[in-house]
Predict the structure.
Amino acid sequence: MNEDQENTAAAEAAPAAKTDFVPSEAKEGKNQKVRVGIVKSTSMNKTIVVEYVNRVPHPKFKKIIKQSKKFYAHDEKSEAAVGDKVRIQETKPISKLKRWELVEVLVH
């Protein structure tokens, strides 16, 4: 057996370790959406509700209107507070509603 075969045999024999949630900051090569919004709620454990406001032209009348959407984001360290401006990033599904994670708190 050469070195490559020994390494692959050892890797196959070792059981796969269970991995917990890994922030997307550690991942590379992914084009994930990033949004900036205001924290509206922190009443859940490790979860924040972020309101994202987007300004778009009306399809028919072309007047600029505001569209808002709420995102449930994972906040591992519970560092965000209500009213903070935060940056969130898309990630793999964490729970039924959470598909985003907190990247950083921009303004306290």
Summary: Residues 32 and 46 are 21 Å apart (CA to CA). Residues 32-107 form a domain with the OB fold (Dihydrolipoamide Acetyltransferase, E2P) fold (CATH 2.40.50.140).
